[in-house]
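To: structure desk
From: M.T.
Subject: fold request, one chain
Message: Could you run this one when you get a chance? Sequence is below, nothing fancy, just the single chain.
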Amino acid sequence: MKLAVAGATGVVGTHVVDVARERGHEAVALARSVGVDLTSGAGLVERLAGVDAVVDVTSTASQRRAVAEAFFGGVTTNLIDAGQRAGVGHHVALSIVGIDDVPSGYYRGKLLQERLLAAGAQPWSVLRATQFHEFAEQALHLAAVGPFSFVPRMLSQPVAAREVAEALVDLAEAGPSGRVPDLAGPERLDVPSLSRRLVRARGLGRRVVGVRLPGAAGRAMRSGALTPGSDGPRGRTTFAEWLASTS
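Reply: Done. Structure tokens follow.
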């Protein structure tokens, strides 16, 4: 099978490429370095020649709704259109657990991505996953002043990025499946405490301050809205195991 990976150099994308190649598939990156612009669609049709499935794990740094919707809407539309022209039979996308219940600009972009796939003519699959173990370190830089990192108080059920990649390649191999059960990690944990554990393990010398995000989004995050509300697949790797393997 030939897989095209959008976001191939990101946290999950690098694992998707590795897993696909380990299983004997051909994995090609959709990136500017090979003449592809996902936001404009330039070079996509040519790069998708002979591709069986696209795996989209793209992301944007912006939390603003207008920016997130423009990014995810544009990239998804371009991938669908180019995929149909190139004869790609399956579009696999990664989304996020709980985004219906958290009024965040970024999550509105992800919801738009899901709606476009569901309304499009190309066969599709969507996997929602919880935050990755790496989020504990990413959170240190969201709001940092001197040695202090102000980390949002929220409940998470973090999962290993490698296991998310395995699930995405599983979907590509299985064929179009629509939205599949949510994937989460094995433990429900508080994000500031995870960031503190990471700081200690890596000797980063930062002070982590848990902060309550305002409004409905903050309340939802603290209540566990971004954790699964029903049974489903669970990752194997705990945060402690991941931290030990990466420190």
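Reply (cont.): Residues 157 and 187 are 5 Å apart (CA to CA). Let me know if you need anything else for the meeting.
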